[in-house]
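Hi W.,

Here's what went into the run:
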Amino acid sequence: MATRQPVSTALAAEYGGLDAAPRPPKISVEAVTKLYGRKGEVRALENVDLEINEGEFVCLVGPSGCGKSTLLRMIADLHYPTSGSVKIQASGPGLTTAMVFQNYSIFPWKTVAENIGLPLEVNGTPKAERVDRVAALMDRMNLSDFADALPSALSGGMAQRVSIARALAVQPEILLMDEPFAALDAQMRRILQDELLSIWQEDQRTVVFVTHSLEEAILLGDRVVVMSARPGKIIGDYRIPFERPRRPEVRGTKEFAELEQEIWSQMRGEVERANK
Amino acid sequence: MKTIAIEPRPIELDPDGFARRRKRNNVILGLGTPLMLLLLWEVSARVGIVDARFFPAPTTIFEEAGKMVASGLLFSDVWATLRALLIGYALGFIAGVATGTLLGLSRVARAALEPMLSAIYTIPKLAILPLLLLIFGLGELPKILLIALGVFFVIWVTVLEAIEDIQPTYTEAAHIFHINGIQRFRHILLPAILPMLFTGIRIALGTSVLIAVGTEFVSGDEGIGYRIWHSWSLFQADQMYVGIVTVALLGFLLTAVVKFLASKLAPWAPRETRRAAS
Ligand SMILES: Nc1ncnc2c1ncn2[C@@H]1O[C@H](COP(=O)(O)OP(=O)(O)O)[C@@H](O)[C@H]1O
Ligand SMILES: [Mg+2]
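Here's what came out:
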């Protein structure tokens, strides 16, 4: 049975209660409101608070147009809030965030290996190390046979693997993913979900993953954050109880179905409201 | 551990004011830069830093323009050039659209004509002027025909490429719903190629002005090109500058018309096409 506990208690437990030194969350979204347009006529986000801890895999779900991408892009430093702030704790000198986009955004004029190696090339990683890292990633993502292929020769699933490998190549502290699998067919989506589960297990990096698929969110996430229809607000924050390393078979369990039903019953009204 | 704070920038705090200030600054820069340069020129010409025989002061040029307007010379020159441009452009455009469409839709026409047309494409149109003069004699006709030729080549290539680029799903949908013949041209083909066509129209505009002026340099006794060339042989730099500025303005105005038409007739055009047509 899916036991759900309020996130705050869960966090307190994780850090050994009040005795542990308070550690600021990796990402802290504080009272963020985002309006678009010269007169602020589009209210995308309203007073959003969200804390994400180091090593947490958080999935953002909500009806389309509710501001998920907007929130993610603010964390990526691509968009800026109208009021409020996003604070990120950066611990190393390297890249803090890297993003995987829905439509891949890999460069059609570079081969698979060149696409993955580009961020390393520009940040001055020595060639030998770069080649090793790119080779390892291509091996990990089953891309080795396509090292010298141009993206136009790749299927959607392959292209998205390149995009993920490119993001992982820079070893970002936070991996941001905006509906990365939405354009793939159902089988390919499943395969990449399973791969992402095992990739995450290896280094347990902080991930913020936007999706409109509840099933995907529950399968992948430690937390599922539910947003309301526009203007986006956070209306639910569910801790996913399934153990790590998480096996893809959890999809078929009764607990999974019940949890999906529970979250869906809350989301449904919002999705309907968004389409009115 | 370093905290990165992503906070509102000035543009988020006051987007409306920011947009207004940016617009105002753009106007100031857009008008101010040429004004400053003109002022610099004026001063240089007066003080004698530049030779006023070759670079007469802007105010002198402006005075000359006033005289040419008063005498009616400028108007008749502009009209001579504009008339040839409009007639030549219209002829070349119609022929270009017809040919491009034919080549785009008929495999046979394409096989028969495209290699030849492509081979001729790179011939500088002005190189044919002597031949046209030989056949048609002096007068307006060679000028009009040459302009038409220049426009024709840009337009048919654009139309052909645009037709080839049409997404198959559009033509497939047309097929499914039995949209054929002239209906197909009107509802599918024409709107589909329109954004690219406007890019072609814009490029052809530049070509046509170039050909008009070039033709007037060497033949005829009116038009802005004639005036510029004539001023050189008479050593009248003032008049020459008036001619150059007038051509520039003419090109600018015609481009503005095309830009306006593009925004009205093809509002669905992707932004880069619209910019190319602007
Ligand atoms: N650059 C922009 N300018 C104006 N409105 C925007 C812009 N980006 C997004 N929006 C609007 O903000 C709302 C939220 O968009 P988005 O974050 O993309 O939603 P989601 O990713 O949840 O589908 C939508 O209504 C969208 O139309
Ligand atoms: Mg989105």
